[in-house]
Design goal:
Elements lengths: L3 E5 L4 H11 L4 E5 L17 H5 L4 E4 L9 H11 L5 E7 L8 H15 L4 E6 L3 H11 L5 E4 L3 E2 L4 H13 L4 E2 L9 E2 H11 L6 E4 L4 H8 L14 H6 L7 H4 L1
Parallel strand pairs: 1-2, 1-3, 3-4, 4-5, 5-8, 6-10
Antiparallel strand pairs: 7-9
Helix pairs in contact: 1-6, 3-4, 5-7
Bound molecules: NADP nicotinamide-adenine-dinucleotide phosphate.
NADP nicotinamide-adenine-dinucleotide phosphate binds next to helix 1 and strand 4.
């Protein structure tokens, strides 16, 4: 690989840690995002700054995303167009996007398709939900006096530093196509996740499980978002919460 790695979304929760991992190598690491303090500020949706950031990059770790994802396909298209032949594209995706009807997952799948069809060498890593995301979700629903959770939904949350280390290793390696799913150490129901969150905050609230109709809910109940055969993460959600309940809100940002 040549010495320059471009990370898109380097200001994000995952991106900051991927950049920290890559900076331990002797490669030049660039961050392309709209709010970066670095020299490669840009916007993948408008295309501003993308050509400059991509110039001379031999590897691109594409993490940028804006849920619910309306602009992600355009952003990915603009990125791929700016890359020279032979650039190794490493893309972060989500477990189950190949069969899950949830709209954001379908967007991730469409971006995977673009990467695969680009003719560029690529590596795609699908992971389960990040600890921070599930904590944010729990905080959001736990505002109600009685906490509603969808019956039968589960998650297998994973630590962002573990995903970041894996992405950095993949970026330093040869293109590998779609690699094995990466899941957290435990499958937890949403009820268990909210209970662990409330306990970590020293609170207790009644939780009520609701039957949510529809095909998206059915897919969550079927567990398409889980990877129990690939429970390679080591840090449990409970251990993560012991490090302090994070104040990040995915839902305010969206
Ligand atoms: N959260 C999860 O549970 C989970 C699970 C599996 C995979 N993933 C994937 O992991 C990736 C990172 O997630 P995260 O949780 O770290 O998200 P995040 O904290 O919201 O970070 C998103 C990043 O995308 C950048 N971005 C958004 N729009 C952009 C644009 N138009 N141009 C350039 N950069 C843009 C943001 O930077 P600026 O705002 O500065 O532009 C930010 O750096 C996403 O692709 C997500 O789909 C997430």
């Amino acid at each position: 690989m040549n010495g320059t790695i471009l990370v898109t979304g380097g200001t994000g929760l995952l991106g900051r840690q991927v950049i920290a991992e890559l900076q331990r190598t002797d490669q030049e690491v660039r961050d392309l995002s709209r709010s970066t303090q670095g020299p490669y500020r840009g916007d993948l949706v408008t295309g501003e700054g993308v050509t400059r950031a991509a110039e001379g990059a031999g590897t691109v770790v594409h993490l940028a995303s804006k849920p619910p994802g309306k602009t992600d396909v355009q952003a990915t298209r603009n990125l791929l167009k700016a890359l020279k032949p032979g650039t190794h594209v490493v893309y972060i995706s989500i477990v189950g996007v190949d069969r899950h009807p949830y709209s954001y997952y379908q967007v991730k799948r469409a971006c995977e398709d673009l990467v695969e069809a680009s003719g560029l060498p690529y590596t795609i890593l699908r992971t389960t939900q990040f600890h921070d995301f599930m904590a944010s979700l729990a905080r959001s629903v736990a505002r109600s006096p009685i906490v509603p959770v969808p019956a039968g939904w589960a998650s297998q949350p994973i630590a962002i530093p573990e995903v970041a280390a894996q992405l950095a290793a993949l970026a330093m390696g040869d293109p590998a196509g779609l690699v094995a799913d990466m899941g957290g150490p435990q499958v937890l129901t949403l009820r268990e996740i909210v209970e662990l969150y409330l306990t970590a905050e020293g609170r207790h609230k009644p939780i009520v499980e609701l039957n949510v109709p529809g095909k998206v809910s059915a897919a969550f109940r079927a567990g398409y978002q889980l990877a129990p055969q690939h429970a390679v993460g080591r840090i449990t959600f409970e251990e993560f919460l012991k490090g302090g309940v994070p104040s990040t809100s995915y839902f305010r940002k969206a």
